[in-house]
Amino acid sequence: MKMPNLNNELPVSDDEVPGLRVPHSPRGTPPRQTSLAEVMETARSVSNLSIAHEIVVNRDFRFKQNSPTPDSLEGRVKEIVHRAFWDSLEAQLAHSPPDYSHAIKLLQEIKETLLSLLLPAHSRLRSRIEEALDMDLIRQQTEHGALDLPRVAGFVIGTMATLCAPVRDDEIRGLRELRDPAPLLREILRVLGLMKVDMVNFTVQSLRPHLLQQSVQYERAKFQEILDKQPDALDHTTAWLNRAVQEAATAPSNKGPGKTSTSPSPAILSPSAVLDQAYLSLLRWDPDCQLYPETVQMDRSRLDELKRCVDVLTLMASVLLVTSNQCGGNVFPLPGFVGKLKQVIAALLEGSHHR
Is this model's pTM higher than 0.85 or not? Predict the structure, then answer.
């Protein structure tokens, strides 16, 4: 597939590069109104694309449990609601005879979570869970006052110890020390939530080699889906590449001996030269500019960090050069002077990109 000619006056060479097809829209046709369903579908596509891209480029990518900060409104509301629920459960279990209505619902949730953590090869363990946490039998036992909740909790903890990652061993030991049923059920659910996140991260790491093989085709297909629904979805990218073509064509490296900027024949640019110029421009990007290219938006935080490093190195090299020119003969030969000066400059510039 040939790279589209982004500017009629500046031809690009015919190297094989990936491209995206812009849907045809007749001139004079008013823009089609986008429905809410299409917007939501596009948002889901972008979300899936962002997650897949992050898994591929970041080998340390991990999902984390979403926990609001305690001093936030969401955190305070969550704490109040949870406290009320667990206080109610504790009061129900303290009745004589105990009221297991809420406890049964929690046991059902625990059973479903344990089953979701199983792999296809765990058929025997699945049968044991189904047998030990038979909800119909448990309801009958509660009706006749024969439910042995500590025994059920012991089976759950033992199963969790079998399925959990080694990093959760301390959590499992803490569960074995609890005796009060309400706090025990609460902690079991908390640790199960951590185990679910561990399982998701394990699955992500297992799939990462396969995603690496298919990432280019997947991202290209996803961008094409978005472009089919929203033809203007890559306008910023088009403008970005157009500027790169102009800058690459006027760069000194593209002018041979005797050539000037007024030469009648336009420079023949390779796609690599255009992309190099485009990505270099991102290292000089104005942070206040809202026209960031859509195709690199997912990597903006990494590119901004790289830009910060380039700025710091540029300033550091400038200070070292000025110092060398002004008093290099006297102080530069001193042992450790250059290293100490670089440390001082780095300390002074620390956090400067936030100011």
Answer: no
